[in-house]
Amino acid sequence: MEPREQDYIYIMVSKTNTLLGIVIQRLLGVSYNHCSIALDDSLEEVYSMGRKELWNMFAAGFVVEGRNHGFFAAHHRSDIVLLRLAVSRAEKETLRQVIAEYEQAGCKYNLLGLIYCYRGIPAERENRMFCSQFVAEALQRAEIHVLDKPSSLVRPHDFLSVSSAEFVYTGAIGQYQPV
């Protein structure tokens, strides 16, 4: 059996000081309220479900952001934790394809799903997801198993307890330098 060709993917868990972010932090008693996924450590392309317009939390859905553009460029003081997961090259390529499918589908933000998640009720809605649900679902569809719960119940801080994840960086996104 030939050895598995190793590569990495990155999960970014962040603390955003937006109205919705602050509400989530207080309701759940957690420090981090958002998460995204990246395919390399540059964080120039970070995929998530979030704001499509910087100052409008209701125009939300699938977004491609980066540490130097989009939401995080304007909120460069947001605290993040960057986690690195070892995956095979085949798993990473499958994840890349899954992310492209979500982008093409034009997924929208699942605000109602946040309420169900908070109450512990698993609920799937077609083409609608919140940030941590998107990251968990994309990983599951790529057969990268890190959490043992339905994606609609995954919260951003759940990724901080993934035993196979390596902590790469903690601090302000504006101060982050690729490894």
Give a quick set of tags describing it:
179 residues; six-stranded antiparallel beta sheet; single chain; two-stranded parallel ribbon; 5 helices; alpha+beta; endopeptidase fold (from Nostoc punctiforme); globular
Task: Describe the protein's architecture and organization.
- The protein has 179 residues and is α+β, with helices and mostly antiparallel strands.
- The chain has a single domain (6-172), classed as Alpha-Beta Complex (endopeptidase fold (from Nostoc punctiforme)), CATH 3.90.1720.
- The chain is built from 5 helices and 8 strands, in the order E-H-E-E-E-H-E-H-E-H-E-H-E.
- It has helices at residues 19-28, 71-74, 89-105, 111-118, 131-141, and strands spanning 6-15, 34-38, 46-53, 56-65, 79-88, 108-109, 128-129, 165-172.
- The protein has a 6-stranded antiparallel sheet with strand order 4-3-2-1-5-8. Strands 6-7 form a two-stranded parallel ribbon.
- Strand 3 and strand 4 (56-65) form a beta hairpin.
- The longest helix has 17 residues, at 89-105.
- It is globular, with a radius of gyration of 15 Å.
- The chain starts with 5 loop residues before the first strand and ends in a 7-residue tail after the last strand.
- The mean pLDDT is 88.
